[in-house]
Design goal:
The chain is an all-beta fold and about 290 residues long. It is about 0% helix and about 50% strand. The strands form 2 sheets. The protein has a 20-stranded parallel beta sheet that branches. Strands 1-3-5-7-10-13-16-19-22-25-28-31 form a 12-stranded parallel beta sheet, with no helix packed on it.
Length: about 290
């Protein structure tokens, strides 16, 4: 077990597998077991951190404390349970709670990254993934934010997220996709009860909706670019306010964003503002009513 003091910066830059055999049990009902407890700045730069202990999804490779930052630039962070669990409140792109620029963050039975505070999880490169039997790769359980791809990104391949990106708080918490590739084989690609903004990238789901604004009327889904494909169902299921494109910008784009569904491209249950883009579906393009149109 490595404990990184708040006054220090730990940089792991060797090809090492850290393994422990003794559980660290907090004085509550849940066991918290981890390889690294970080209260400062932890840089994973070529190291291989692998927790091989199995049995419960509380097993963690890295626990990130309230003012901590974990940066993964190369190497591997892997766990049976949560690979990186963060309660950090660092919330800027310059100093986020968790930043992945390269390498691999992976869980075989739980979430690769679990954000349980107001901090930012900022993924600009590398791979974040879960096993094919696990639904959610990145889980936002608080008022924090998840950003995939740097602002202005045009990449549809990097970063690569395998598994769902999920926001589990009503009207709070923000998911932004600027670029990269999100592929979900179990469940939807991007889901939120709060706010989703998609500016670019490629999002696909093979067993459910590619993007889902859940059954919360206050949920917002704003899409200005990117490609969204539901290969076995809907491209988008909207229960909140969906805005596709930009209103009154002087042009109407018939090339981006691109929404495709195996059934409908979009199924709308609430408010749908349609200003730009292409919507396609085998059954039909849209199931539901368009609220406003340019």
């Amino acid at each position: 077990i490595l404990v990184n003091d708040a006054s220090k910066t730990a940089t792991l830059n060797t090809n090492v597998t850290l393994q422990y055999n003794t559980a660290i049990v907090q004085p509550d009902t849940a066991a918290s077991r981890y390889l690294v407890s970080n209260s400062g700045t932890l840089n994973v730069a070529g190291a291989n951190l692998t927790s091989t202990i199995s049995g419960t999804t509380y097993e963690r490779a890295i626990t990130n404390a309230s003012a901590a930052q974990t940066v993964v630039s190369s190497g591997t962070v892997k766990a049976y349970g949560i690979a990186i669990y963060t309660t950090s409140t660092n919330a800027t792109t310059g100093t986020p709670a968790v930043k992945v620029t390269g390498g691999t963050v992976e869980s075989t039975n739980s979430n690769a990254i679990y954000n349980n505070a107001a901090g930012l999880v900022y993924i600009t490169g590398g791979t974040v993934k879960v096993a094919s039997t696990v639904e959610t790769a990145i889980y936002n359980n608080s008022t924090g934010a998840i950003t995939i791809g740097a602002s202005g990104s045009t990449s549809t391949t990097s970063p690569a997220i395998t598994g769902r990106v999920y926001g589990d708080k009503t009207t709070s918490g923000l998911i932004t996709v600027n670029g990269g590739k999100i592929t979900a084989t179990t469940g939807s690609g991007v889901v939120s009860k709060g706010s989703i903004t998609i500016n670019g990238g490629a999002i696909s789901a093979t067993s459910s909706y590619a993007v889902y604004a859940t059954s919360n009327a206050d949920a917002t889904l704003t899409i200005t670019g990117g490609t969204i494909i539901g290969t076995s169902g809907l491209g988008i299921s909207n229960n909140g306010t969906l805005t596709l494109g930009v209103n009154n910008d002087g042009t109407i784009s018939n090339s981006t964003p691109i929404i495709k569904g195996e059934t409908y491209g979009i199924k709308n249950y609430n408010t749908f503002n349609f200003y730009d883009g292409v919507i396609k579906g085998i059954t039909g393009a849209i199931d539901g009513t368009i609220t406003d149109q340019e």
